[in-house]
Amino acid sequence: MQKTFKGVAEASRLICLHLSLILVCGLTIPALAQFTTARLNGTVVDSSGAALAGATVAVEQVGTGFTRTASTGSSGEYVFPALPVGQYQITVTLNGFNTYTQQGVTLSTNEAVTLPVELKVGSVAQKVTVTANATMVTTDSATLGQVIGQKDIVGLPLNNRYAQQLVFLVPGAENVTQSYCAANCEGGVFPSEQYAKINGSGANGVSYQLDGADYNDTYINTNLPFPNPDAIQEFNLLTSNMSAVYGDAIGGIVNISLKSGTDSIHGGLFEFYQNDMFNSKNWFAQSVSALNQNQFGGYIGGPILKDKLFYFGSYQGTRFSSTNNGLGAYVPNAAERTGDFSDIAPGSPVCQSFGTCVQLVDPATGVNYPNNQIPVSPVATYLLNKIPLPNGAQLGIPGPPGLPNDNLYYNGLPIVQNTDEYLVKVDYNFAKNHLSGHYFQQKYTQPLVLPPSTNILETEGNAETLIDKNVSVVDLYTITPNFTLGSYYGFTKIDGTTYSGAPFSM
After folding, report:
1. Residues in CB range of 414: below 8 A, 6 or more apart
2. Backbone CA torsion sign across 365, 366, 369, 375
3. Less Cβ crowding at N or C end of the chain, within 10 Å?
């Protein structure tokens, strides 16, 4: 028995949410949108603080050869309105002054930073090189947020390697997944989807973007699963005073930037394993719940054409199996299964001691059943034959004081969850363009396990198959040093199927 999600698998969801043209002109006008880029500006002055016009400012991204140049205006200002995130080297030249080189300039997603430069009188052939990391400040944006860098993404402990959990490192971010899902969760949702409240906003008030493409589950307004931590360069969470270019979110904007290839080949393999060796058992269980989780994969990036064309790819597989031992339920005892409910009839010892008096009435006639003796229903008999008798007393687990011990304790069905994710990204530098695109897919499967005919309480309702596909294409076209055109295209599709473990219907 299976069910296909309406509105999800019936039609693919083409989401071109960022078919945006970003026009940036003028030396001091900030970028209108920076989904995957950063903005760098500053002023070039001499040792007396006088502005230097006509200086040539060149930036080069370390490892890819991506370069852009600009000239300072009459007030000595320069601006690079849209640079791909990463590490840069800046070189400033002007006749009559030493060449200035600043290394260690790191730009992050959505940053709009200022880097002032002071030139010394001398020959252009003489060089002044600053190798320490540059100190940069944001002076022209009131947006509040925080960048979670690659070091934190990989280094901090993450349950199940869900990188989206790092959102809750930002002040004002609260995880309300459990409380919100208790009443509102739907089927067909990836386990890593979460509800986040930012500064008291609603639980659906955060919008996610993956390399410039919309990355939200529009079914319930949450995030879709992030790629594994080794594939993420950084992500930036904006929490206040967001630019008007961001829609559909009042709480925050999360921009996820994926890693890219460079002129040198780099990669790695990983495996994370955990089991139940050191776990303790549930107090109501007779044995420790089984647990085996293995996460494995790798990533690699490098050049296809030096300084021009680069690739990056990653894979992660997750194999999870567990049991939930020590589940409990309050079930009818042997007497109640024959229609004998005299223990709760008015005047019974239990009723007099605890006040749990119930007079059962024939719903058809309104006449009381004498001593709470009701006729046996064939439907009830059929169902009760598939539900074990109480076993709390046999297991030595006490029931409510003075009441019959009608507790049943049992082990849940095995839980198996398998996930495979694939990522391919390509970057291309040509002429005045920086073109970037990625394809990301994640497939999550929880196979159907049918309950035994002796205990239908073990029926599992979470069996499903979910597939998430995301594509983005980003083109940054530098028309002139001060005139940039950015185009963002995104496509997201989610397919889902649920499976019913019910052995019969009413």
Report:
1. 290, 321, 322, 323, 449
2. positive
3. C
Residue 372, helix vs strand vs coil = helix
Q: Which of 472, 452, 448, 469 is nearest to 460 (CA)?
A: 448
Residue 132 three-state SS: coil
Partners of 131 in the β-ladder: none
Of 456, 460, 462, nearest in space to 504 by CA: 456
What Cα–Cα distance (Å) separates residue 156 from each residue in 159, 166, 235, 289, 425? 10, 9, 14, 27, 25
User: Amino acid letter at 98?
Assistant: N
Q: Give the length of the chain.
A: 506
Using a 10 angstrom Cβ sphere, with 0-12 exposed, 13-18 middle and 19 or more buried, the burial of residue 57 is buried
With contact defined as beta carbons under 8 Å apart, do 90 and 75 qualify?
no
- CA gap 29, 25 in Å, rounded: 7
- Specify the amino acid at residue 345: A
Give the whole-angstrom CA distance, residue 238 versus residue 251. Answer: 9
The span from the CA of 38 to the CA of 140, in Å, is 13
Average pLDDT on 359-374 reads 92
Task: Kindly give, in sequence order, each residue whose CB lies less than 8 Å from that of residue 370, ignoring residues fewer than 6 positions away.
Answer: none
What tokens does 13 get? 């969801």
Q: Given pLDDT bands bounded at 50, 70 and 90, which one contains residue 402?
A: low
φ and ψ of 303, to 5 deg: -90, 150
DSSP letter string, 243-310: -TT--S-SSEEEEEEE----SS-EEEEEEEEEESTTPPPPTT-SSPPPEEEEEEEEEEEEEEETTTEE
Contact status, residue 2 vs residue 498, Cβ threshold 8 Å:
yes
> Strand, coil or helix: what is 206?
strand
Run of H or E including 380: helix 378-384
- Please write the tens of the pLDDT for every residue from 306-344: 999 999 999 999 999 998 888 999 899 999 999 998 888
